[in-house]
Amino acid sequence: MAKEKICLIINPISGTDSKKNIPEEVAAAFDQRKYDLFIRITGYPDHATEIARKAAKKNYKYVLVAGGDGTVNEVAKSLVHTNTTLGIIPSGSGNGLARELGIPLDTEKAIKIILREHTRTIDYGMANGHIFFCTCGFGFDAFISDRFAEGKKRGPLGYVRNILESVVDFRSEEYEITTDNGTITERAFILTCANASQYGNDAHIAPGASMDDGMMNVSILKPLNAIEVPQTTIQLFTNNIDKNSKMTSLITRNLLIKRSRAGMMHVDGEPVRTGNEIKVETIHKGLKVLAPDNGLRGKKRKESENIFNSLTRWFN
């Protein structure tokens, strides 16, 4: 009987932790009588995309990726609408897709999830031709992503620091937003199209979003004053941003965003310059991923509310 093929793609420079032991751990985990494992190390931008695309064409059963959100996105977009399933070993700073799917950040535990071979088929989004799996955003989140991409401080503390340092430099913009249900015009501090509930780093911008409902959650946060920034930041990191009085949430399959001029957007945290019109669409059930059962969100929400209640008393 022919062996199934597995490709492990490693980005050696993403995130903060060493990945030198991952090849050995993965090789030891899989039964070599059933699987042929091929290990590839990325060497330049989009190299992971090339490797994953070739693996899918050769009908590999799994492509596993050890890297951050950028590398995961590179691999995942090459596997959409193929027979090859994505496995994630979170090794970045944000780990947005892994966190959303409930994949542990510990390497050994993540490999155990892969070995269970439980497959989910999830949606993805397209923004002016750019594929994203968690979020694409305009306004302050795009501004932050651009700065964060160049920053030296990684992880949640670095993310919060960038938010607090950048908020004074940012100017909100007016957007015309056309959804399946009509058109609205809003001046927004944040405008995010969310296939998942979070950006990464457990920063939840759309607590009600689902990755397999065929719909896009659109989060519109109106301009904030300086006093409102700390509490809003806490709400973001405790999964309670939908309780903010300046937040408007829309649900749609497709939308068109118009702004006065070209500028930045981000796709899964990667900054991209694009035009003044952005077409965003949801592609239903486009990517197969190895993930645990999706039963963690309710518990997480309850725990977050306890944290939220403790922290926000300081702002009341």
Describe the structure.
This protein has 316 residues and is of the alpha+beta class. It contains 9 helices and 16 strands. It has a 6-stranded antiparallel β-sheet. The chain has a 6-stranded antiparallel β-sheet with strand order 12-11-10-7-14-15. α2 runs parallel beside α3 and α8 packs antiparallel against α9. The N and C termini lie far apart (66 Å). 42% of the residues are buried.
Strand adjacency order, main sheet: 6-5-16-13-8-9
Individual helix count: 9
Major sheet: size, sense and barrel closure? Answer: 6 strands, antiparallel
Content-based structural category: alpha+beta
Which parts are unreliable, with pLDDT below 50 for 5 consecutive residues or more? Answer: 295-299, 301-316
- Order of helix and strand elements from N to C terminus: EHEHEHEHHEEEHHEEEEHEEEEEH
Strand content: 25-35%
How many DSSP-defined strands? 16
Shape: globular
Write the layout of secondary structure elements.
Elements: E1 4-10, H1 22-29, E2 35-41, H2 47-57, E3 62-67, H3 69-79, E4 85-90, H4 96-101, H5 107-116, E5 119-127, E6 130-132, E7 135-139, H6 140-150, H7 155-166, E8 173-179, E9 182-188, E10 190-194, E11 216-221, H8 228-237, E12 247-252, E13 254-258, E14 263-267, E15 270-274, E16 277-290, H9 297-312
Parallel strand pairs: 1-2, 1-3, 3-4
Antiparallel strand pairs: 5-6, 5-16, 7-10, 7-14, 8-9, 8-13, 10-11, 11-12, 13-16, 14-15
Helix pairs in contact: 1-5, 2-3, 6-7, 8-9
